[in-house]
What we know:
InterPro entries: Mce/MlaD, MlaD_Phospholipid_Transporter. By secondary structure, the chain is an alpha/beta fold. About 60% of the residues lie in helices and about 15% in strands.
Amino acid sequence: MKNAKNKRAIIVGIFICVGIAIFITTIFTIGGEKKSFSKKFPVKAIFTDINGLQEGDNIWFSGVKIGTVKKIDLQGNAKVEVTMNVDEKAKPFIKKDARVKISSDGFIGNKLLVIFEGTPNTQPVAENDVLQTVTMPSTEDLFTTLQANSQNLLAITGNFKEISKRINDGDGSVGALINDKTLSVKLNNTLENFRKASLGSQKAINDIQSFTAALNNPNHAVHQLVTDTIMTDLLRSSIVQLREATYTASNFVNELEAASEKLNDATSPAGVLLNDQQTAEALKATILNLRSGSKKLDEDLEALQHNFLLRGYFKKKEKEEKKKD
């Protein structure tokens, strides 16, 4: 009987020890998650609206939990002072000009505080320092803005509806363009002309690029023509000669015009010869007479050569000419 009681007491003691161990482990686990046993320092911030922030809510810094909200106190002028318990390890990273804003874990999640580190060269924050706050729009403000945007969207939709109706009715330039087939054809022709002009511009650009490439090619005639000084001098000389030839040709044309005017003038000798029929007939008769007289003169000279009085003279002259040859 006594042994049974001792055995029961041992079992009860074992269960009690296991329960105490589980309890202690749970306490340390929860404390580790909430960092209840880590060293902390207080930092304050003053808000005009905490949007449902409560004591015990988390504090985040660069996405890492560094503390919790310790206390919330009301002050005058509709101000709320929030005291934060921040881990000592985060102290070097939080500067005196750091700022705090109220955020939430998701769209409708629990509220939390987010701390921005501040300027790198600024001194770290100290205990009970008051950090600057960033005012964020409340949910009510967001819904008010959304409602205003919805009203504006409805007004814009109504305007588009009115514009669409006017276009369908053919009012205005756009409506006429859409409903009038002739305007559509003209627009297509205009676009086609623009396309052709674009193709022409592209061809001109390609030609300019080809000419530029030829200028940069030392083996190309264009490059040699531009860079060769001798060729340039020859070209300049040719241009000067061409200019002089053009000037001479111009003078010749002027003189030819003057001569033509004189030929057309019936009072000038040349004009009389060209324009007076009687004078032309007389000149023609004179030329015929001269031709006939020249023929008779040749016959007379031939007769003189065979005359016995002058035959010796002509033979002597013929011999002298043969000696010269």
